[in-house]
Amino acid sequence: MTDARVVRNRAGLRQALLDLLEGAPLEQVTVRDIAAKAGVGYTTYFRHYPNKDALLRDLAASEVARLSDLTTPVYDAVDSRAACRAIFAYVDQHRVTWSALLTGAAGFVRDEMLQRGRQDVATRANSWLPGDLGVVLGVTVIVELLTWWLRQETPPPIDFMADVLDRTGISPARPGIKDPA
Predict the structure, then answer these.
(1) N or C: the chain end with fewer CB closer than 10 Å?
(2) Is the Cα dihedral 34, 37, 38, 40 positive or negative?
(3) What is the rounded CA–CA span in Å between residue 55 and residue 3?
(4) How far apart are alpha carbons 14 and 137 in whole angstroms?
(5) What is the maximal distance between C-alpha atoms in the chain?
(6) Strand, helix or coil at 175?
(7) Percent of the chain at pLDDT above 90?
(8) What is the DSSP letter of 124?
(9) Could you give phi then psi for residue 126, rounded to 5 degrees?
(10) Taking the model in full, what pTM does it have?
(11) What's the pLDDT band for 108 if we cut at 50, 70, 90?
(12) Rg of the Cα trace of the chain?
């Protein structure tokens, strides 16, 4: 995708979907709504995406890639709590986007995170947990904590949530932690 128009249209469609998800659940948002909000023709939408789920998947993949840059070092960091804090700080800065994703596309987000985690686990030092199980548990904890946190009327502070993530999902699976068996 090097054509500037294609890049611009896709970015516009992703942003339009995000904007629309702020006001309505995914099932109420139509392709016509997205195209109109993005300022592109209805048929132009289908030049980029075959359906609404494909756009949602693209949006989820884009955001997970950004978050992945923060989550990958979590397992290697000397200070894993600081890395966990970076995850919550990023999501907090992009609260509307992540609220929409975890409300309307949590399955896509989880799938994308699992795929990236499984690719990454092969290069990681072994912990006492089997690699794939560690990925599944880590992704599940991250997605569920983020979802819960974003739904709170008065969310706990980032530092508290980073501590919860580190203590429940990260530190127990880090290399060098003794096998509990």
Answers:
(1) C
(2) positive
(3) 18
(4) 29
(5) 60
(6) coil
(7) 38
(8) S
(9) -70, 140
(10) 0.80
(11) confident
(12) 18
